[in-house]
Specification:
Radius of gyration: 23 Å
Number of helices: 2
Strand content: 25-35%
Mean pLDDT: 78
Shape: globular
Number of strands: 8
């Protein structure tokens, strides 16, 4: 009896897969904005803007922007002309808080500020930040 169930189960699963594939291939309404990928590499960052002493916006590639929240005030980040972004934990990707730290040169010595949150910015947020 079990031998009869196996040949019928495989075609049924195959047919279900085809139906699911066909349904997913149907045109759907395009989303208003495609979200930026959640992760990026530190080497891909090509610009930054300070958002006070507790957050930094970074530009990745040509049109991806992320807000990096810092784990407390990073006093010199808001006036520094350059910062470094270093990954932690041996991973080259930054996906969430604690994956990276901001390194800020300072007259009193180098400051290291832990990133506690990573969030992709929407096009509206980027435009509003540029107007400021």
């Amino acid at each position: 009896m079990k031998q009869l169930l196996i040949p019928f189960a495989v075609p049924a699963l195959g047919a279900a897969s085809i139906v699911a594939w066909a349904a997913s291939g149907a045109p759907a309404a395009a989303p208003a904005e495609r979200p930026a990928p959640r992760c990026f590499r530190a080497a891909e960052v090509n610009g930054f803007t300070s958002r006070g002493s507790d957050a930094v916006d970074v530009r990745v590639g040509a049109n991806r922007h992320y807000r990096l929240s810092l784990g407390g005030p990073c006093p010199d980040v808001d006036w520094s002309l350059r910062v470094a972004l270093r990954t932690t934990g041996g991973n080259s990707y930054i996906c969430q808080g604690a994956d990276a730290e901001i390194i800020v040169p300072s007259p009193s010595g180098t400051q290291r500020c832990l990133v506690t949150d990573v969030r992709a910015l929407t096009a509206e947020e980027v435009a509003a930040a540029r107007r400021r």
